[in-house]
Specification:
The strands form eleven sheets. The protein has a seven-stranded mixed sheet with strand order 1-2-8-7-10-11-3, with helices on both faces. Strands 15-14-13-35 form a four-stranded antiparallel sheet. Strands 16-17-18-19 form a four-stranded antiparallel sheet, with no helix packed on it. By secondary structure, it is mostly beta strands. The longest helix has 10 residues. It folds into three domains: about 350 residues, 6 Propeller (Neuraminidase); about 140 residues, Immunoglobulin-like (Sandwich); about 55 residues, no CATH class. It contains five helices and 39 strands.
């Protein structure tokens, strides 16, 4: 469902339809949640002063030993020889049964992982993933997780029904804080016992990124209980690590949105023939309401001050794509665009505002184009087609924070509704190196084991990935994408699970890591994880990932990316952290930079004007 299923949803919610309109409604969507990461974690939704563990105010710092931070004893563990030793028995499993589980066995050949996927990269600061398995229901489960600085042993008595298990919040925080990156992943071994028969261990490895995801994801939702139940439509917001989303807008056509990279502005449809711009810094107050579709799926400049309207695909707009002032809807003359581009579909600016990508609809729906942009005179130059596939429909381009790559969706050219993300559609995610125009499928994200069609997904349901967007900054040595998928979620949601009567299949939001320094033409992605906190009984689509609105000087902060001036430092002499004017000297992680030489940590990179950990090694 993107603005094509959206049309059906709008018709249902508003009771009107547009004569002769055959375009399916859109269901891409985005939203952020009001609650920031799990309260019990020491590394919440915005991360700590330095997610890498380095606190270097004006120079280098000392990295504390992994495994020995305060989260280990907070979870009930002890630090021995720089290793967090943590054993818990919430299931009340007897010592005799513990011995059987530790010995392992082969009593159930059907015992297998269904979720998470092997080699999934997890960041810190999230809710513990719900481990899910195939096999005979057990009476007890033993979870053994290790890395160089961790030895965890947990014994559980799972509930009846499908085999599912999530670790306690404090435990998951201690475990992820102990891990130190891809060279020392968590090794997760799970063993079960049922009817006296032991099966396992079955094992996976999960690299842990050295940082916490930040920002807000705005998404469309259909059939959400929070937004009104069956046949409802709306825009939700959720922060990675939150336990549930928050309704941002609901009812009669509030779909087909985008948001500015700085988190200040959102634009969306309000009906089949109306749209609006909203201020996310003032309780989603209306900036301007339009009696047309100028704001529907408009590509917002990073600060939200203007937007490039989208045309044709994923909208029913017949007017040309033009640059508009967000506050007044005044058309801004755009040298190099006006008279050159008539129809630009699913337009998107780069996080630094220096480029724009769009579907080159003046040619066809099979081409993604890019142009350079100069904000001083609103001029566009260097039009180039960066990705073309005559056998597919390409759409939903999104830049990586460094502006070097564009991630996009591909679907078969014969699709009933181009750019569909629902309604039985098929799709895969690709990315392209702008400099060389070299394209590669994101196999690991899409669920493939290689360039062919073989899949690692337990339900064998790849080819169901849609509408990607990218967090505007690097975290923990990776870029991060959020996308919609109708794949199975372990044993919780079946592949293409149907929604309530009148609603589409249940699309859900998934997140995946992308390597910082990819090689053109090669997959740079990692297996995706399910975004916990979203409603599982709703159709959730088109997650649009942005940073939170910035704080002025004196506002509370934990990292510089939360501050309008780009710096977060202790108040006075060792006081609480607050946003400050540029203090001079070097910049901490997530603080402003122009080159890597500005960063306190000499290994950091400067990505989209922020100091960031280098590519995870």
């Amino acid at each position: 469902m993107v603005c094509a299923v959206a049309v059906a949803a709008i018709v249902s919610a508003c009771g009107t339809s547009k004569p002769g309109n055959t375009f399916a409604a859109s269901d891409g969507g985005g939203s952020s949640s009001s609650g920031g990461g799990d309260d019990s974690t020491g590394d919440g939704g915005f991360g700590n002063f330095s997610d890498s563990g380095i606190q270097h105010d004006s120079g280098g710092g000392t990295q504390p030993p992994k495994g020995c931070d305060s989260s280990c004893p907070a979870a009930g563990g002890t630090c021995t020889n720089n290793t967090c030793i943590l054993t818990e028995n919430p299931g009340g499993v007897s010592s005799a049964t513990q011995g059987q589980l530790q010995a392992g066995g082969s009593g159930d050949p059907t015992f297998a992982w269904q979720y998470p996927y092997d080699k999934t990269v997890f960041p810190r600061g999230l809710i513990s993933p719900t481990m899910q398995f195939a096999g005979v229901a057990p009476s007890a489960i033993y979870v053994h997780i290790t890395c160089a600085s961790l030895n965890y042993n947990g014994y559980f008595a799972p509930a009846t029904g499908p085999i599912r298990l999530a670790l306690p919040a404090a435990t998951w925080t201690a475990i992820t804080n102990a891990a130190s990156g891809p060279t020392d992943p968590l090794v997760v071994q799970v063993t079960k016992i049922a009817g006296g028969q032991v099966a396992g261990p079955i094992s996976e490895s999960w690299p842990i990124a050295q940082g916490s995801l930040r920002g807000t994801i705005y998404y469309e939702t259909y059939g959400s209980p929070l937004a009104g139940g069956a046949d409802s439509v709306g825009i939700m917001e959720i922060q990675p690590g939150a336990k549930q989303p928050t309704v941002l807008k609901k009812g009669c056509g509030n779909v087909c949105h985008t948001a500015s990279a700085d988190g200040s502005t959102l634009v969306a449809a309000t009906s089949l023939l109306g749209s609006a711009a909203y201020d996310l810094q003032t309780s989603v107050s209306t900036i301007n309401a339009a009696a047309n579709e100028h704001y529907t799926y408009g590509g917002l400049y990073p600060d939200g001050s203007f937007e490039m309207s989208a045309t044709h695909y994923r909208t029913w707009i017949s007017a040309p794509s033009r640059l508009y002032d967000t506050k007044t809807e005044t058309n801004i003359p755009a040298l190099g665009w006006d008279g050159v581009i008539t129809n630009g579909g699913t337009t998107a600016f780069s996080p630094d505002g220096k480029q724009i990508a769009f579907v080159h609809e003046d040619e066809n729906a099979r081409t993604i184009a890019a142009m350079d942009f100069t904000v001083g005179n609103h001029s566009f130059t260097n039009l180039v087609d960066i990705a073309t596939d005559p056998s597919s429909v390409l759409g939903w381009p999104a830049f990586t924070p460094d502006g070097k790559w564009v991630v996009f969706q591909e679907e078969p050219a014969g699709a009933a509704a181009p750019f569909e993300t629902d309604d039985g559609a098929n799709g895969n995610l690709y990315f392209v190196d702008i400099a060389t125009k070299t394209v590669a499928r994101l196999d690991s994200v899409d669920g493939y084991t290689g360039t062919g069609t073989t899949t690692y997904l337990p339900a064998s349901d790849p080819n169901l990935s849609f509408a990607p967007t990218v967090l505007p900054e690097a975290v923990g040595g990776y870029f991060w994408i959020v996308f919609t998928s109708h794949r199975s979620y372990g044993n919780t949601l079946a592949s293409m699970a149907p929604g309530a009567a009148g609603d589409d299949d249940l699309g859900q939001l998934w997140v995946a890591a992308l390597d910082l320094d990819p090689t053109a033409g090669h997959d740079a992605s990692h297996p995706a994880f399910y975004l916990d906190g979203q409603e599982q009984v709703a159709d959730n689509l088109r997650g649009f990932w942005v940073l939170p609105p910035c704080e002025q000087n004196g506002g509370a902060c934990t990292t510089g990316d939360q501050c309008c001036n780009g710096f977060c430092r202790p108040a006075g002499d060792g006081g609480p952290l607050e946003c400050v004017s540029p203090p001079g000297g070097c910049s901490n992680e997530y603080e402003l930079c122009t080159t890597a030489a500005n960063c306190c940590d000499t290994s950091d990179e400067c990505i989209n004007g922020r100091c960031a950990l280098p590519a995870a090694q």
